[in-house]
From TrEMBL:
Localization annotation: Cell membrane
Short name of any one Pfam family annotated for the protein: Zip
Source organism superkingdom: Bacteria
Record's protein name: ZIP family metal transporter
Ribonucleoprotein as UniProt keyword: no
Coiled coil: none
Matching InterPro entries: ZIP
Family stated for the protein in its record: Belongs to the ZIP transporter (TC 2.A.5) family.
Organism (species): Bacillus songklensis
Length: 242
């Protein structure tokens, strides 16, 4: 049982491992920031369309997928309006901060079903399915943690705060994994809804914020190629691990 919890913890720690080197990047240019934004967008689109959505369809059906994606999209829409309303009262430059918070929430939602998947996999078959799922998700968490922290630093978040915010998304995954281990039978039916919900939330952030933001400073062409490279990176990692 200790090995099961250790494997779940390692998956979440991979996010922190990726975040550490990103803390030391400073004075990021507009070109670099747009490139990172677009690359992150590509990673998130691939994670949604090549990972979360197919996994949802394997576990359930198109109806569940549609409901989950729409719920994720609507939840982020409402959340964005709430954050924008509060930000407009407290900051004259609230837009970037709102985008940062939405991205954090999106990644947190993304990590929630991932953690449940790791926990359920370990509880179902710890030495085969659990290890494979944990390794696959942990490996993709390294670049996700790096890009998340770098993105936050590029939005004038201090490196320490950026690291802590990213680590928080990893903690969410760890807690979800533990819940999945303990309550496997109760969460099996909810996992596909969570996967689709996370996909909808991520696609909302990509199309609403990351892509428009990456095209805002005249770097449309390098941002486009960066998006494609991010997409291919995530697809390659997912295919290699299957």
């Amino acid at each position: 049982m200790d090995e099961i919890y250790l494997g779940s913890a390692v998956t979440a720690v991979c996010t922190v491992m990726g975040a550490i080197p990103a803390m030391f990047f400073k004075n990021i240019s507009h070109h670099s920031k747009d490139t990172v934004l677009a690359y992150t967008a590509g990673i998130m689109v691939a994670a949604s369309t090549y990972g979360l959505i197919p996994s949802t369809l394997k576990l359930s059906n198109v109806f569940v997928l549609i409901i989950g994606i729409l719920l994720g999209t609507m939840a982020l829409t409402v959340l964005e309006k709430c954050i924008s309303y509060v930000g407009s009262k407290h900051s004259t430059n609230s837009l970037d901060q709102n985008q940062v918070f939405l991205l954090l929430i999106s990644m947190g939602l993304h990590n929630l079903p991932e953690g449940l998947s790791v926990g359920v996999s370990y509880a179902s078959n710890p030495y085969e399915l659990g290890s494979i799922v944990s390794f696959a998700i942990g490996l993709q968490n390294v670049p996700e943690g790096f890009l998340m922290t770098l993105l936050l630093v590029s939005h004038n978040i201090t490196p320490i705060r950026a690291f802590l915010y990213t680590a928080l998304t990893g903690l969410i995954e760890l807690l979800a994994s533990i819940i999945g281990i303990i309550f496997t039978g109760s969460f099996i039916t909810l996992v596909p809804y969570g996967l689709a919900f996370a996909a909808g939330a991520m696609l909302f952030v990509v199309y609403k914020d990351l892509i428009p933001e990456s095209h805002g400073d005249g770097n449309e062409r390098p941002a486009t190629f960066s998006f494609i490279f991010g997409l291919l990176t995530m697809i390659s990692l997912t295919s290699w691990l299957r």
